[in-house]
Amino acid sequence: MVMAVFRRLNFRFNPVFRFVLSLTLLNLLSAPAGQCQEESTFALHVGTLLKKAGESPLKDQTVLIEGGLIASILPGFHTFDDNPALEIIDLRQAFVMPGLIDTHVHLSTDHRPESTLSVVKSSSAELAIIVARNAESILMAGFTTVMDLGNGWRQHEQAVYAVRDAISQGALPGPEILAAGSPIAAHGFARTGRFNDAVEFAGGPEGTCQGPESCRYQVLEQLYRGADFINVYPTGSLLQQPSPQQTLTNDELSAIAETADLAGVKVIADGGNSPVGAAGINRAIEYGFDIIDTVTFPDNATFRLLNRNDGYFAPHVYALEAAVGDTPETLEKGSMGWLPRSILEQLYALKQQTPSALVGYREKSKLILASDSGVFPHGDNGNELLAYSKLGITPADTLAAATINAATAFGIEARTGHIAPGLEADLVAFRESPLENMGIVAHPELVISDGRIFYMGKH
Ligand SMILES: [Zn+2]
């Protein structure tokens, strides 16, 4: 795209700017599948630039983007007089920060009860369309990277990998996707049943193992099929009764951690859901799991072990808020109101407790943002940042959880999670600073993912 005129247009109100960006989006959507969409070269004039969460934002900066990467960051508003054709996007009224990262989404499902069966009945091709649609919704919410945690279905694996690859080739709009494939679980604890045995028997679950060698094989199998990291269920689930505190043996957990480590991929313990104890999650930390996820019931040792091992904690705050109503009379009013009454009551009781996110934060554990979207509509992922704020987690720590911490936890901080020359051009612009008004994160104005520009027409 060639812009012959140096433009100083306010992107919020100017219809020409909207039109130009619509054309950019149209170009993206019309790119033939599998063909790499060439990223354009352009510059941003940024009023307030947060290069890395935790640092002080800089005033009046110019960011040059070339070939999908950040080429340079210059103080002041450079006019590039030697290159009059260069497109310059006016963000002088905006706050620009690294693109958000959500480390826990379920791209092929949503919160509606019929979604439970659709993942079984649908072909991988049909699910791929759902995954692509959900991925685009999350991108439009300001998220340029997401981690799909899987659900134990082969069709889901295939759909997510296909969409992941299409997005990375520029053939579809969406955030970069890192995918777990199917979670590794003990027999009977793969969480695929969803209160319907017919669902469990219909073709799943993938990824279950018995014994260290079998678990080692399942890790390698997931990686062979295309997983970017490994997700493990070391305990029971909130959606299952009873929910044991440990479902994989010590030897199995050790074998999983060792295999992932040898393969050079991160491994997540997604559990800690037993009111009886936290053995499963604590053993996982001791064996070297990189991230603990969910952990509704930590014990006194959990965060001490995690901090000692330099691990990360990915709690879900908004998902519980959204899933169930706020009073015993309105339990069914939440996004998961179709769940059995006994589960809703358990979730409601949890809602009255101090969230483990806050316990971990007070223990100075490193938090990473993990919304669990799919429990609530995809695209509402920014509500997780608002939920952090409501708990009293500082805006700076909230933004770090959603950017640099998440990138570092997954070992991709050399590519994304902050804004620096050489990194992928993953940025989001807001009308005001989320450091002063976190509510604005639900209303991004502009998202740039791998140097491709997307405008938020709906806000
Ligand atoms: Zn989940």
From TrEMBL:
A GO term, aspect molecular function: hydrolase activity, acting on carbon-nitrogen (but not peptide) bonds
Protein name: Amidohydrolase
Keywords: Hydrolase, Signal
Superkingdom of this protein's organism: Bacteria
InterPro entries documented for this protein: Amidohydro-rel, Metal-dep_hydrolase_composite, Metal_Hydrolase, Metallo-dep_Hydrolase
Species this chain originates from: Luminiphilus syltensis NOR5-1B
Signal peptide: 1-33
Amidohydrolase-related domain: residues covered: 95-451
